Amino acid sequence: MTTRLLLALAACLLGIAPISAVAQNGPLRIEITEGVIEPLPIAIAPFLTEGAAQSLADDITAVIKADLEGSGLFRAISPNSFISPITSFDSPVQYADWKAINAQGLVTGAVSVTGDRITVKFRLFDVFSEAALGDGLQFSGSGDSWRRLAHKVADQVYSRITGEGGYFDSRVVFVSETGPKDARDKRLAVMDYDGANVAYLTGAGTLVLAPRISRDGGQVLFTSYDSGFPRITILDTGTLQTRALENQPDSMTFSPRFSPNGSTVLFSLSQGGNTDLYSMPVSGGASTRLTQAPSIETAPSYSPDGGQIVFESDRSGSQQLYIMPANGGEARRISFGPGRYGSPVWSPRGDLIAFTKQNQGRFHIGVMRTDGSEERLLTASFLDEGPTWAPNGRVVMFTRETAGAGGAPALYSVDITGRNLKPVPTPGAASDPAWSPLLD
Amino acid sequence: MYRLSTLIILCAGLALSACTDRFGGAVPADGVAGSNADPSSPAYFQQSVGDRVLFAVDESTLNAAARATLTEQAKWLQANQMFTAVIEGHADEQGTREYNLALGARRASAAREFLISQGVASSRLRVLTYGKERPLEVCSTEVCYSNNRRAVTVLATGVGA
């Protein structure tokens, strides 16, 4: 079996392959939407090494554990309490020994190295059903991709137990901030979703705002002040080359967003003091005006199918959320609660809109259904803003800024149930996160 | 009464704008070209004419004080034709980033339109929004916010606006 798998994987950067053909579904299950109060206890057996360095196997186990515990849905049982340590990947599981320590699930795995390629294989067991939960799988990749391999294992475990897609093997583009509050230096950076592998995409001494990452991760749209004026710029994440999008004379552009297929950029253009929504091909060319109103129209975001746009407008007299067809036309207001609503973002699942709400001097991140019903505020602080969706539409990341002269922004994430609010580690002050889709 | 209020406004503007950089922050007095003693210098424009106007929360309407300052700015610009200007619009931090960019553009544009109405050629005036990205004062109370909601007229020479 191993030989066949290796052959199948030989051409892949990050290979994926089943280990056994037997799939059984037990009752091991978390319903995220119900709001998980008590994390599910699971045993993550330290991954074995099959020729790899022990430290590599330990590092991979640690990332899987951090992913699953970080989701707020799982609690990893200390290996010190394991009754029968796993000594071989293919040994039969002694379910009674795992039931005895109240492990609901068991993850086992092993790491091997062939040349520059690492292979990580794992199995997931439903302890109380005494059955495997899904097939064993293995992932392989180059030596420097070990964190991604670990994230992929964690995504599989998360996905099999929750029935939702995972989100761990993903990246976040954000703005790294330094300097005093009245002269902030802002540069683009990218990192893994958990804060690892930070890389800077633009130089120091600049002002850049609100990046967005393309579906394939290859391009980043952002607002740059390099020309002296705010202007939408596109960056190739491979070459770090940038190109300002075509501009109309005496106009300023900002708040860009990719269409789901990545070919169109939706943005705000301000001219003569009036800000409206436009779209244009990412490759360049003529722009199309989508709104024609003396009010402010900004912060647009496409629905996952590309057919509709949610945006904010103060046409009613205050900032509110609206949805209109992707080619413009009549908009319907969806926000009606007290306060002001801005920076709406359509969930990748299509079911919810995340937004920033300002009410009575406080800022909130919230979600509502696309018809405006079931509004739910997830956070409250001096200044929370700019939500971005995890690839599975179950977590949002956002900017939280503290007050005063020494105030600084940081990244936070929270579940759509309002649980598991926590800071996302960054090297320094950070703002405007944009979460990528799951990587291939 | 009108003359008196104008005088008060000008004095207030003077106190605010002494020794300021292009965003209106405190810097050494040589941050802007020329001497305040030279009425055709950018330093005089900034410190004696008054280079900024302030706005109410979430508003871009010019109040009487703002119109008075802009009237003086227009006179100065008409008398000093070698200068062009970029009008920078700013917002306080109580708003979302994108909305504040749009609001700053509205404020800068309101100031520009007023200057044009006073006879300044539109080709000499360009608007720029910084949203909430460049506060003048950094506290998180109305004392600071009221000075951050501003449009600042920044002079340049020899560059088409």
UniProtKB/TrEMBL annotation, chain A:
<dbReference type="GO" id="GO:0017038">
    <property type="term" value="P:protein import"/>
</dbReference>
<protein>
    <recommendedName>
        <fullName>Tol-Pal system protein TolB</fullName>
    </recommendedName>
</protein>
<comment type="subunit">
    <text>The Tol-Pal system is composed of five core proteins: the inner membrane proteins TolA, TolQ and TolR, the periplasmic protein TolB and the outer membrane protein Pal. They form a network linking the inner and outer membranes and the peptidoglycan layer.</text>
</comment>
<comment type="similarity">
    <text>Belongs to the TolB family.</text>
</comment>
<keyword id="KW-0574">Periplasm</keyword>
<keyword id="KW-0131">Cell cycle</keyword>
<feature type="domain" description="TolB N-terminal">
    <location>
        <begin position="28"/>
        <end position="131"/>
    </location>
</feature>
<dbReference type="InterPro" id="IPR011659">
    <property type="entry name" value="WD40"/>
</dbReference>
<dbReference type="InterPro" id="IPR014167">
    <property type="entry name" value="Tol-Pal_TolB"/>
</dbReference>
<feature type="signal peptide">
    <location>
        <begin position="1"/>
        <end position="23"/>
    </location>
</feature>
<dbReference type="Pfam" id="PF07676">
    <property type="entry name" value="PD40"/>
</dbReference>
<keyword id="KW-0132">Cell division</keyword>
<dbReference type="Pfam" id="PF04052">
    <property type="entry name" value="TolB_N"/>
</dbReference>
<keyword id="KW-0732">Signal</keyword>
<dbReference type="GO" id="GO:0042597">
    <property type="term" value="C:periplasmic space"/>
</dbReference>
<dbReference type="InterPro" id="IPR011042">
    <property type="entry name" value="6-blade_b-propeller_TolB-like"/>
</dbReference>
<dbReference type="InterPro" id="IPR007195">
    <property type="entry name" value="TolB_N"/>
</dbReference>
<comment type="function">
    <text>Part of the Tol-Pal system, which plays a role in outer membrane invagination during cell division and is important for maintaining outer membrane integrity.</text>
</comment>
<dbReference type="GO" id="GO:0051301">
    <property type="term" value="P:cell division"/>
</dbReference>
UniProtKB/TrEMBL annotation, chain B:
<dbReference type="GO" id="GO:0009279">
    <property type="term" value="C:cell outer membrane"/>
</dbReference>
<keyword id="KW-0732">Signal</keyword>
<feature type="signal peptide">
    <location>
        <begin position="1"/>
        <end position="17"/>
    </location>
</feature>
<dbReference type="InterPro" id="IPR039001">
    <property type="entry name" value="Pal"/>
</dbReference>
<dbReference type="Pfam" id="PF00691">
    <property type="entry name" value="OmpA"/>
</dbReference>
<dbReference type="InterPro" id="IPR014169">
    <property type="entry name" value="Pal_lipo_C"/>
</dbReference>
<keyword id="KW-0449">Lipoprotein</keyword>
<keyword id="KW-0998">Cell outer membrane</keyword>
<dbReference type="InterPro" id="IPR036737">
    <property type="entry name" value="OmpA-like_sf"/>
</dbReference>
<dbReference type="GO" id="GO:0051301">
    <property type="term" value="P:cell division"/>
</dbReference>
<keyword id="KW-0132">Cell division</keyword>
<dbReference type="InterPro" id="IPR006664">
    <property type="entry name" value="OMP_bac"/>
</dbReference>
<comment type="similarity">
    <text>Belongs to the Pal lipoprotein family.</text>
</comment>
<protein>
    <recommendedName>
        <fullName>Peptidoglycan-associated lipoprotein</fullName>
    </recommendedName>
</protein>
<keyword id="KW-0564">Palmitate</keyword>
<keyword id="KW-0131">Cell cycle</keyword>
<comment type="subunit">
    <text>The Tol-Pal system is composed of five core proteins: the inner membrane proteins TolA, TolQ and TolR, the periplasmic protein TolB and the outer membrane protein Pal. They form a network linking the inner and outer membranes and the peptidoglycan layer.</text>
</comment>
<dbReference type="InterPro" id="IPR006665">
    <property type="entry name" value="OmpA-like"/>
</dbReference>
<feature type="domain" description="OmpA-like">
    <location>
        <begin position="42"/>
        <end position="159"/>
    </location>
</feature>
<comment type="function">
    <text>Part of the Tol-Pal system, which plays a role in outer membrane invagination during cell division and is important for maintaining outer membrane integrity.</text>
</comment>
<keyword id="KW-0472">Membrane</keyword>
<dbReference type="InterPro" id="IPR050330">
    <property type="entry name" value="Bact_OuterMem_StrucFunc"/>
</dbReference>
